[in-house]
Amino acid sequence: MAAAEICAHPLASRPDLVRRAASELVHIVDAPSPGEVLAYAAGLAAASPAA
After folding, report:
1. For position 26, what pLDDT does the model report?
2. Model confidence, pTM
3. 3-state secondary structure the chain
4. CA 51 to CA 36: how far, in whole Å?
């Protein structure tokens, strides 16, 4: 979340997606970087129906 907030990433307002991305990605990638988590979260957001 801190990386999203620091870089004013649009997903900073979607902590649910960032947390979900982090919890899923840790099973796929050893020690994912903040950038990898944000990229994965962006993919989740794109695949989700518009709210």
Report:
1. 95
2. 0.77
3. CHHHHHCCCHHHHCHHHHHHHHHHHCCCCCCCCHHHHHHHHHHHHHHCCCC
4. 24
How many whole angstroms separate alpha carbon 38 and alpha carbon 33?
A: 9
Whether residue 33 has pLDDT greater than 70: yes
Q: In which domain, by residue range, is 28 found?
A: 2-47
Give the per-residue pLDDT at 3. Answer: 59
Single-letter residue type at 32 = P
Provide the number of structural domains found in the chain. Answer: 1
Report the alpha-carbon distance of residue 43 to residue 37 in Å, rounded: 10
